[in-house]
């Protein structure tokens, strides 16, 4: 059977092809009765909108790219799910690319992969510098995620420094004084780890707790084995923390394993808190307290901003007036308290 076309829908509904097009594009001046008749005809005939043709007529492909460092890090997998859902509501298709936190891969993504098949890019960079981002002439519209901020680009993130300060304050409020930061980085970099470390140090200073550089436990990557190795190594060297601030939930889950293997009770001896609120932390033993970024909001704002920039970039000359300045959007986060910090205050 031939695929139904707009003229078939129009004939079945007893309206013009233009009216069918107006209903499909959700134009406001179509009466409710006509809209219902056309939609019933679309459903009856099984008509499907040719999204590719619609996008191409506007000078677009309808494809956006989401570029993340590693897809098997649960935070990025969960974020990708939200981005896909948000894009689908706008009839957009998402191409997902894993950069491996490699600068060349991130630069290639920033340049649109050397092609014109993506209309825009949502990029979570780890290896790029501000200089890399400064001149994007001829590149597709881009929205940045995370800490790396360039004045000429749209940017979406949570306030990582504030979030880490809140998490550390919570640990201090439990009477914990020897708090190790798993994955902490005390350098001048602009990354998420550095921002969270600054928040950790600020909370210590507020409480009058001396900062010890040895309290930062470096990691090779932000995965469970790295968290386990870092904590096991610190314990083997004689560290006796009463709390751990882990800079993501993967590190925290690894830390829980290391503490268990060393006979350290959580939260009785050591309270543990992570970042990202990934699903695994809700099923660990004990369940994991964490900083929960609003991942759905990050996705929604990023896709909205990108769609706006794509429309600006592909609009006919003079069709867009007063181009919007680049947006720096901070999305909400909250502290989720579970068993790994609950019920064991020290005074």
Topology:
Layout: H1 6-13, H2 17-24, H3 32-45, H4 51-57, E1 63-68, H5 74-88, E2 93-98, H6 103-110, E3 120-123, H7 130-134, E4 142-145, E5 154-157, H8 160-173, E6 179-182, H9 192-206, E7 216-217, H10 224-236, E8 243-246, H11 249-261, E9 271-275, E10 289-293, H12 295-314, E11 328-330, E12 333-336
Parallel strand pairs: 1-2, 1-3, 3-4, 4-5, 5-11, 6-7, 6-8, 8-9, 9-10
Antiparallel strand pairs: 10-12
Rg computed from alpha carbons, rounded to a whole number of angstroms:
25 Å
Largest sheet: 6 strands, parallel
**What is the average of the pLDDT values?**
88
Shape: elongated
Structural classification: alpha/beta
Question: How many helical elements?
Answer: 12
Descriptors:
6-stranded parallel sheet; 347 residues; alpha/beta
Structure description:
With 347 residues, the protein is an alpha/beta fold. The chain has twelve helices and twelve strands. The chain has helices at residues 6-13, 17-24, 32-45, 51-57, 74-88, 103-110, 130-134, 160-173, 192-206, 224-236, 249-261, 295-314; strands at residues 63-68, 93-98, 120-123, 142-145, 154-157, 179-182, 216-217, 243-246, 271-275, 289-293, 328-330, 333-336. The strands form two sheets. It has a six-stranded parallel sheet, sandwiched between helices. It has a six-stranded mixed sheet with strand order 7-6-8-9-10-12, sandwiched between helices. Strand 3 (120-123), helix 7 and strand 4 (142-145) form a beta-alpha-beta unit. The longest helix has 20 residues, at 295-314. The protein is elongated. The termini are far apart. 40% of the residues are buried.
């Amino acid at each position: 059977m031939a695929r139904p076309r707009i003229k078939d829908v129009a004939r079945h509904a007893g309206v013009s092809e233009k009216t069918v097009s107006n209903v499909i594009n959700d134009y406001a001046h179509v009466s409710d009765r006509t809209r219902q008749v056309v939609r019933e005809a679309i459903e009856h005939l099984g008509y499907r909108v040719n999204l590719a043709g619609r996008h191409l007529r506007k000078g677009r492909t309808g494809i956006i790219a989401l570029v993340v460092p590693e897809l098997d890090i649960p935070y990025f997998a969960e974020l990708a799910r939200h981005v896909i859902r948000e894009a689908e509501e706008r009839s957009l298709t998402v191409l997902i690319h894993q950069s491996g936190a490699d600068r060349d891969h991130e630069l290639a993504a920033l340049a649109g992969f050397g092609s014109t098949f993506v209309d825009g890019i949502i990029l979570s960079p780890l290896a790029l510098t501000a200089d890399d981002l400064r001149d994007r002439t001829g590149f597709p519209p881009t929205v940045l995620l995370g800490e790396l901020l360039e004045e000429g680009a749209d940017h979406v993130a949570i306030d990582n420094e504030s979030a880490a300060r809140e998490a550390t304050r919570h640990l201090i409020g439990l009477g914990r004084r020897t708090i190790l930061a798993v994955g902490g980085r005390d350098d001048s970099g602009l990354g998420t780890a550095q921002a969270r470390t600054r928040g950790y140090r600020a909370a210590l200073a507020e409480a009058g707790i001396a900062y010890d550089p040895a309290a930062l436990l470096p990691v090779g990557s932000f995965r469970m084995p790295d968290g386990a190795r870092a904590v096991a190594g610190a314990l083997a060297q004689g560290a006796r923390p009463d709390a751990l601030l882990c800079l993501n939930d993967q590190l925290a889950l690894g830390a829980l394993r290391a503490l268990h293997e060393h006979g350290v009770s959580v939260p009785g001896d050591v309270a543990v808190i992570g970042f990202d609120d990934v699903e695994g932390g809700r099923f660990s033993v004990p369940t994991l307290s964490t900083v929960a970024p609003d991942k759905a909001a990050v996705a929604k704002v990023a896709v909205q901003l990108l769609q706006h920039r794509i429309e600006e970039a592909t609009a006919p000359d003079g069709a867009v007036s007063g181009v919007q300045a680049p947006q720096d959007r901070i999305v909400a986060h909250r502290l989720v308290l579970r068993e790994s910090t609950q019920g064991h205050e020290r005074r």
